[in-house]
């Protein structure tokens, strides 16, 4: 599997690359939309909203991806929405809805392990047990217009959409590459979707 990771120029992608390679992928880190021919694309969870969305447009991403699976992790998932309270730039607008700040009634950022409640099937959750643990680091969360796009939630003083799926796009608010056995299985499932 040839997987592209889009580098926003904001941080270390070592653990993500390692997790994908351990699962059997050949990984290419790119700084902008690449040539077609990748079996999947990953938008990583490192960086800030405005500089990240400046790296790619909706048209560039959809043309680059074609119909291959795209995995957005944390910030990478947030970019897929129409806009975010973190920045002033419009999002990619692939998933209807917005990204909002976590409520000020809870400790922010949400950092650490939280269990997942699966509420619908997803390309990355086959074989994942109900209440599996995942590792979160975030101050914002998705507020999708279409509730059916949410396939798993986490409870942290509020209900956080933890996995979002829309067409060939899947997003996680948590970091699967840091989420132990469950995260490894999700990455394997993503690569399995890329093989189809």
What does this structure look like?
- With 196 residues, the chain is α/β, with parallel strands linked by helices.
- It has one domain (2-195): Class I glutamine amidotransferase (GATase) domain (Rossmann fold), CATH 3.40.50.
- Helices cover 21% and strands 32% of the residues.
- The strands form three sheets. It has an eight-stranded mixed sheet with strand order 2-1-3-4-13-12-11-8.
- Principal-axes geometry comes out as globular
Portion in helices: 10-25%
> Could you give the order of the helices and strands?
EHEEHHEHEEEEEEEEEH
Radius of gyration based on Cα positions = 15 Å
Question: Which strands sit side by side, in order, in the main sheet?
Answer: 2-1-3-4-13-12-11-8
The CATH homology group name? Class I glutamine amidotransferase (GATase) domain
Task: Classify the secondary structure makeup into a structural class.
Answer: alpha/beta
Number of alpha- plus pi-helical segments:
5
**Shape-level CATH architecture:** 3-Layer(aba) Sandwich
Residue runs with pLDDT of under 50 for 5 or more positions: none
Q: What is the third-level CATH name, the topology? A: Rossmann fold
What share of residues are in beta strands?
25-35%
Mean pLDDT: 95
Number of strands: 13
| Total number of domains | 1
Give the biggest sheet.
8 strands, mixed
Span between termini: 11 Å
What is the C-level CATH assignment? Answer: Alpha Beta
Question: What are the main properties of this structure?
Answer:
196 residues, alpha/beta, Rossmann fold, 8-stranded mixed β-sheet, 3-stranded mixed β-sheet, 13 strands, globular
């Amino acid at each position: 599997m040839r997987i592209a990771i889009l580098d926003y120029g904001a941080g270390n992608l070592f653990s993500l690359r390692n997790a994908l390679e351990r699962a059997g992928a050949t990984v290419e880190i790119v700084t902008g939309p690449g040539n077609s021919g990748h079996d999947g694309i990953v938008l990583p969870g490192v960086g800030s909203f405005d500089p990240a969305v400046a790296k790619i447009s909706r048209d560039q991403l959809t043309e680059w991806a074609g119909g291959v699976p795209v995995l957005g992790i944390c910030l990478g998932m947030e970019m897929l929405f129409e806009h975010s309270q973190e920045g002033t730039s419009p999002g990619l607008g692939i998933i209807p809805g917005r990204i909002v700040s976590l409520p000020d009634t809870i400790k922010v950022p949400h950092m650490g392990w939280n269990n997942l409640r699966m509420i619908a099937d997803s390309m990355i959750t086959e074989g994942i047990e109900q209440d599996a643990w995942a590792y979160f680091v975030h101050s914002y969360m998705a507020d999708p217009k279409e509730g059916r796009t949410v396939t798993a939630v986490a409870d942290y003083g509020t209900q956080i959409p933890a996995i979002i799926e829309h067409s060939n796009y899947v997003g996680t608010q948590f970091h699967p590459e840091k989420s132990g056995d469950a995260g490894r299985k999700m990455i394997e499932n993503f690569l399995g979707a890329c093989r189809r």
